[in-house]
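JOB MANIFEST
job_type = single_chain_structure
chain_count = 1
residues = 92
[input]
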Amino acid sequence: MRVLITGGAGFIGSHLADAYIERGDEVHVLDDLSTGSIDNIRHLRKHQRFGYTIDSVDHQAVVAELVDQCDVVFHHTICPSDFYRSIISNNM
């Protein structure tokens, strides 16, 4: 299976990448490193079934190309400014 993990250089995403590589799947990580770290996925670069792109999910062309190449997508991104805005604007 071909797996795309957005936010894959973060804590959860990098552990998910580890698990899928260990399972024998192909894994591609997309992360802008705003909260994640390349150190979390550095050890995976030696695997032929692993790839990564340092870019934002805001770049639709990049995301579309990566999604087209994958069977499943795990979306684990965070945008702190959007998160904060959603908290203060929620009227519930």
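[summary]
The chain has a mean pLDDT of 89.
The longest helix spans residues 11-23.
exit_status = 0
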